[in-house]
Structures are given as C-alpha cells and as structure tokens.
Amino acid sequence: MTKVQLAPDTTLFPVPIVLITCGAGNEANLFTLNRISSCNAEPPMIAISVRPSRASHDLIEKLGEFVVNIPWPDMESVCDYVGTTTARTTDKWAEAGLTRLPATAVQPPLIAQCPVNIECRVQRSMSLPSHSLFVAEVVALHADTSVLNERQEVDFALAHGLSYRSGIVRERPADNFRPDALWQKVRAWSSYA
Ligand SMILES: Cc1cc2nc3c(=O)[nH]c(=O)nc-3n(C[C@H](O)[C@H](O)[C@H](O)COP(=O)(O)O)c2cc1C
Description:
Elements: E1 15-16, E2 18-22, E3 29-33, E4 36-40, E5 45-50, H1 55-63, E6 65-70, H2 76-82, H3 92-96, E7 100-101, E8 110-111, E9 116-127, E10 132-143, E11 164-165, H4 179-192
Antiparallel strand pairs: 1-11, 2-3, 2-6, 4-5, 5-10, 6-9, 7-8, 9-10
Helix pairs in contact: 2-4
The structure holds flavin mononucleotide (FMN).
Residues 17, 29, 31-35, 49-51, 54-56, 80, 83-87, 170-173 line the site of flavin mononucleotide.
C-alpha cells in the first residue's frame, strides 16, 4: 500500500441512502439522506443529520417525527431526484410517482414503494456546525415479506443490495447531475413501478 494524507472527511463505508418522510397531511414531504446511524439498541434508536436550510428540517422540528424509508436499488434515480429538488418549488410526490401510506404511530406517511419503513419519534436534538442531529426512537417498523428471513428479520441480502455507497460519493447524485437526464430516468422508473 502507498498511502497519502487527505483533507479530513468522514469517509465511512458503506453508507445507506434512505428517503426520509416528514410533516403531516398536505405538508408531508420527502428527501434523500445519507447521514444516518443506528445509535442505541434498547430501545432501538436512529440518528439523522439534516441541514437547517432544508424545507424538511422545519417539518421534523415541528412534529418531532419522521419515517426512514429504505428504497430498492432501482430507485437510485428517484433518490437523486428528491435529493436535488425542494418542496418549496416542487411537488416531489407527484413528480417522482411515489405513493403515501398512513403510518401507524407517527404522522408523516410511509412511502409505499419502499420495502422497509421505520417510524421514528425524536427524543433529542443537537445543533452541530452545519447540520442538526436528531436522535429518535424507532416506534414502528414495516417490511415487505420478500426481504424477511426465516426469523422474520429484515435481511438486506434478500433485497439484492440496496443503495449503499461510500459517503463521499453519495453526498451528491450518483451520476453527474444533469436535471434532464435524471428526469428521464425518474419517468422511466415511475411508469414501470
Ligand atoms: C445522495 C444524497 C444524500 C443526501 N444526504 C443528505 C443528508 O444526509 N442530510 C441533509 O440535510 N441533506 C442531504 N441531502 C440533500 C437533500 O436531500 C436535498 O437538499 C433536498 O433537496 C432537500 O429537500 P427539501 O428542501 O424538500 O427538504 C442528500 C442528497 C443526496 C442526493
């Protein structure tokens, strides 16, 4: 090995790409997020980091609730689309062809097309230099039967590899971001799904 020293960065691998839903009723929104971690076992807790500039940030603060929706691998373009458009100017649900389902314990909806949906209630939050950290308890979990093993556990090997990449790569869209090209991919996915 020949190593070089690089500028400090988080550089963790792998990082999941998830879709977060937040807000209730007509305000319900979704966005893409990779800064996520399992951070407690009993009770199960998850931490996410969200920039205050996101429209979703205020919705999470307002309700103290969000849902982590884990997408199928072929939803990568959809993830890039809702991770590069804002609810302030775009109806992302309609544009991405995604469907809302009612959650059981929280107000934000589940994304029907995602095989796993994790309902979370915020217990603590902390302002970090660029992001807000929301630490939340998992209060309900939903999974498509096709991703469950014989012990009724979610087994991602059965999901044929979800969207995991290096954190640095997946802070931005997977392809060079060209809105037209991305839009074509999203249309192709939503007419097939
Ligand atoms: C792959 C990917 C990962 C992202 N990860 C995060 C993240 O961890 N935290 C965050 O605040 N924004 C993240 N974003 C950016 C938001 O998804 C993006 O700013 C989105 O447009 C916010 O939508 P909103 O304004 O409707 O809330 C990510 C975007 C992409 C494409």
